[in-house]
Amino acid sequence: MNAENQGCSERLVTAAYVRQGAQGRRAHELRLRALLEQGKCPEDGWDESTIELFLHELAIMDSNNFLGNCGVGEREGRVVSGLVARRHYRLIHGIGRSGDISAVQPKAAGSSLLNKLTNSVVLDIIKLAGVRTVASCFVVPMATGMSLTLCFLTLRHKRPKAKYIIWPRIDQKSCFKSMITAGFEPVVIENALEGDELRTDLEAVEAKIKALGAENILCVHSTTSCFAPRVPDRLEELAVICANYGIPHIVNNAYGVQSSKCMHLIQQGARVGRIDAFVQSLDKNFMVPVGGAIIAGFNESFIQEISKMYPGRASASPSLDVLITLLSLGTSGYKKLLKERKEMFSYLSSELKKLADNHNERLLDTPHNPISLAMSLKNLDESNDAAVTQLGSMLFTRQVSGARVVPRGSVQTVNNYTFKGFMSHANDYPCAYLNAASAIGIKKQDVDIFLKRLDKCLKTFRKEANQEKSINEISDSNTATEQLEN
After folding, report:
1. Which GO terms describe its cellular component (predicted)?
2. Is residue 323 domain-shared with residue 340, that is, in the same domain?
3. 131, 235 in Cβ contact below 8 A?
């Protein structure tokens, strides 16, 4: 309410009361002003009424919400369902223009402001999480795989002769298909087994670069966050190799924002060598619906090139979701979630080790993986070939989601590429195993219930194995008695 309307209100309601109400509104507006001036995530989270006021202010700046608007174009922000309109806070025009996802829309000043503020706030959070020298980023309404594809397509114009992408193996389909979709040939570098860990084979990477020729390689496509016993790539060493050979370097940092170790690797890689862009998921790092990612880098002009490669306008939903989330959390709330995740990782690790010991298994030693853990299933695998996959089914039917069981010898063909030992990141990992991760938002209750249900499943297998053993012993005894009688 502006001063003129406030003056009119004072003729209807006691002036002191109106001024008090105006002061209350002023408190909300001061928060909005700080956000607009600084472009940073507030330290303390906002209440929902402030966020809704802010979104309403943005929405009425878009032409589809003008009281006297007359639209005669093909895209006028018309929405037939009121439920849909409310779901999007009447921010209907999306973000960007046909030539640039980061461009301002003349008839959607509010949506454009939302886009700019979201990118600015997210950049602040990436710096807070550990990549302090990041220069630019933008939210794109695609998940991680397609966002990686966008990066590769942008590099195509810089390196028109290149046809290969060097890719240290990680058994996850979307990052592999991102290279195929962009029209490039992945060159798979098998990982080196060091103890229990699968680590980057730097010698193999450099040998392949020399064999193919640096000018024929689009980029090195490395990974931070991953399932144990795979651990984050040796980013610093890879970044130095890329700098020495003049090869771009794209990092798949899917759920690495929540890990200070992953973010430190990116920061150090950029400091000592070359990292052109790193891509991270919105839903995995900020607990919002699936459908968005952040593309970030250390060269602002290159990140702008990527944003201009996106064809057409884009949905504002991922930007809206992450902005609402970060405004409600504030930096203090997000840091608290990061701290809790790290504490839960230690708790999950210690408790899973105890359970493994009780069942004559072991927690694999993967100290370089800050998010995922792996427990061997060697005894289970040896007793019954189908038992490992059956364990996965048992856990799923008992409402345990996210746990992965990885049998030995699995073969999978992805886009005509055959992977031996698929899901284990290696052709022949020494044992079958089970994965569990401590991701952002996990609670102690989640860990305790998972361990309890896993323990029951393993006890069921042990009981069945003992019964089968007893039956076999009785059968052998009867056979021996019959032979003596004969």
Report:
1. cytoplasm
2. no
3. no
Characterise 245 by phi-psi region: left (phi > 0), alpha (psi -120 to 50), beta (else): alpha
Domain extent for 362: 334-457
Q: Is 267 annotated as a binding residue?
A: no
Q: Whole-prediction pTM value?
A: 0.93
Could you tell me if residue 79 is inside a domain? no
- Judge whether 260 and 231 are in contact, CB under 8 Å: no
Give the whole-angstrom CA distance, residue 118 versus residue 67. 27
Q: Position 133: which residue type?
A: T
pLDDT band at 24 (very low <50, low <70, confident <90, very high): confident
Determine if residue 281 is labeled as part of a ligand binding site: no
Dist. CA 107–CA 103, nearest whole Å? 12
Q: Is 97 annotated as a binding residue?
A: yes
Residue 463 assigned as binding residue: yes
271 among the known binding-site residues?
yes
Residue 398, marked binder: yes
Residue 361 to residue 420: CA distance in whole angstroms: 24
- 318-376 pLDDT per residue, tens: 999 999 999 999 999 999 999 999 999 999 999 999 999 999 999 999 999 999 999 99
